[in-house]
Design a protein that fits this description.
22 helices, Serine Threonine Protein Phosphatase 5, Tetratricopeptide repeat, 6-stranded mixed beta sheet, Alpha-Beta Plaits, Rossmann fold, alpha/beta, about 550 residues
Length: about 550
């Protein structure tokens, strides 16, 4: 088999195959996170970003590789989540620019796209770190450029690039000490290579077609009515539209299709290489899912009652609108003013605290649920202030927030808050009457004055700074360090605070999470009052998930 060029349709197939490959392996990528904490998850963030890229790419009607790449780039930018997702979006952007408006991609063009992808991503990161996804992307781009004129076979070309990428990935622990200490390779780099592996699989299979046709292609087959009309559902034989994915290492597509063919109609069973997409109209979704479970784990399960599907869609839209409106501070929403503030929050108590501090719009997010660039843009649209100030309150959200400055015509400033306590400290010094530059300087200075502690649980065994940590141990963190570990939440909390308090400390603020009772938080506060009788101890219900306590020491 000899593949020389990639057209627009084939590029869609490649994007879809890459997304499937990452989805099948995202848990492995997530497990490579340096810290053993319930974090934003590199694999999940990259996958959600990739799905947004795929969705936009599939909607391009022309068989034009450059237009598909441009659409995917835009989709990835709007859907970018976490630092890894933002970097992936910049790789897409550079790749699209490197295609030079060509409708078909030959090997030299593909190589230039990979090189431009790396160049663009490096420029987007203020302080690039070697031993990360950036290094893997750069090495792949350089390898591609060095061999692009030595072969006319796209398969051979991608195989060599991928082989080199894996060699570089294996060396990332030697480039970044924290990786070596944790005993892992870089998670973002691993995710990127899974995407390239999926691309290679699509190129290697000339007969491979899209599993999910694009909306534009579907409309060429089925003409949609120009307006909604009443649909008579009395004659529907099978009432439940059932869709799901099977992650499997041994499932046979043809055999499984035969197994469930008698369960309904409108049957679609396609895929391979560890992932099978299933669509069926049936009266017994449970029976279909039970058969699927024998092949592997299920994901993206969606079951709709077709008799009520239209009403359910309208209801979901209304519920989403109501829920979205709840995040807008009514006291500020209609006011024309100098400043509007957007804060990322991770608990009902913290939401209320931010509202009391005159935050205009609250975006739900934090650990394990990083909001996308588009989520933050939608929040900006709800504000009225001349200047919009964004508080990401998580190091993994800062880059996504920064992207909004290039996508909106509003005056936007991002204060690089890495925790909820830092966000609160920044808000305390915001002066509505001061000039923007004065406020930005004051807020940045404020976040440097607060020390933050977090108490959570370990999601895997690891060793850190000579300390053995077992899965489910309680751990206390500050910035990039694990400072305490043990089996009791309050004991670990005391040890953590002991390492954060110094002679200049005057206040300890405790934000307790959804898994901590009022009594347990009160007990910790009492212990701290005895130990630090010269400090003020404040206790606030935060309601945050996963993190038992957040501490601010000022």
């Amino acid at each position: 088999m000899n593949t020389k060029t990639i057209d627009g349709y084939k590029l869609k197939v490649i994007l879809e195959s890459a997304a499937f490959k990452l989805e099948a392996n995202k848990d492995e990528v997530n497990s490579l996170n340096v810290f053993p904490v319930p974090d934003g998850d590199t694999g999940t963030n990259m996958l959600l970003t990739m799905k947004s890229a795929l969705k936009q790419g599939l909607d391009v009607q022309e068989n034009d590789a450059h237009k598909v790449a441009q659409a995917a780039s835009q989709g990835s930018l709007m859907g970018a989540r976490g630092n890894s997702g933002v970097i992936l979006s910049q790789l897409f952007r550079g790749f699209a620019n490197g295609l030079d408006e060509k409708k078909e991609i030959d090997i030299p063009t593909f190589a230039l796209g990979l090189k431009k992808a790396s160049d663009t991503a490096y420029k987007a990161v203020m302080k690039p770190t070697e031993g990360t996804i950036l290094t893997v992307a750069r090495e792949c781009g350089e390898k591609a450029m060095s061999i692009c004129n030595q072969t006319v076979d796209m398969i051979q070309f991608l195989e060599e690039v991928l082989l080199h990428g894996n060699e570089v990935l294996s060396k990332t622990p030697d480039m970044l000490p924290v990786l070596k200490q944790a005993g892992v390779v870089d998670a973002g780099g691993k995710g990127l290579l899974y995407l390239l592996e999926g691309a290679l699989e699509a190129v290697s299979d000339e007969k491979r077609s899209l599993v999910v046709p694009s909306q534009s292609e579907a409309t060429t087959i089925v003409k949609k009515p120009s307006k909604r009309e009443h649909i008579d559902t009395d004659d529907i034989e099978f009432g439940y539209c059932t869709e799901f994915m099977i992650n499997t290492t041994y499932g046979d597509v043809e055999e499984f299709r035969e197994q469930i063919s008698s369960n309904g109609d409108s049957l679609l069973v396609v895929g391979g290489e560890g992932l099978i997409k299933v669509h069926i109209h049936t009266n017994n979704p449970g029976d279909v899912l039970e058969k699927a479970l024998k092949l592997g784990e299920l994901s993206d399960i969606k079951i709709d009652n077709m008799h009520y599907q239209h009403e359910e869609v309208l209801l979901k839209d209304e519920l989403y609108r109501l829920n979205d409106d709840n995040n807008v501070n009514e006291a500020n929403s209609d006011q024309l003013k100098k400043y509007s503030v957007i804060a990322i929050s991770m608990g009902e108590g913290i939401d209320e605290l931010f509202k009391d501090m005159n935050v205009d719009v609250i975006v739900s997010g934090g650990q394990t649920m990083n909001p996308s660039t588009e989520d933050i843009l939608l929040a900006i649209d709800k504000t009225k202030g001349d200047h919009v100030i964004i508080l990401p309150n998580n190091s993994n959200i800062i880059l996504a927030a920064e992207q909004t400055k290039h996508l909106s015509e509003r005056s936007i400033s991002v204060i690089p808050t890495k925790s909820i306590p830092q966000g609160i400290s920044a808000l305390l010094v915001l002066d509505e009457d001061a000039e923007l530059e004065t406020n930005l300087e004051s807020m940045i200075n404020a976040i440097d004055e607060v020390r933050t502690g977090q108490v959570t649980f370990a999601v895997r065994d690891t060793e850190f700074n000579g300390t053995d940590i077992k899965k489910n141990d309680i751990i206390g963190l500050s910035d990039k360090d694990i400072l305490a570990a043990g089996n009791d939440v309050n004991s670990v909390s005391l040890h953590l605070i002991e390492k954060l308090v110094d002679q200049d400390s005057s206040i300890i603020t405790i934000l307790y999470g959804s898994d901590i009772s009022d009594e347990q938080a009160g007990e910790l506060a009492g212990l701290l009052e005895v130990k630090y009788s010269n400090l003020d101890i404040e206790v606030v219900f935060g309601g945050q998930p996963l993190y038992y306590y957040l501490f601010a020491i000022e």
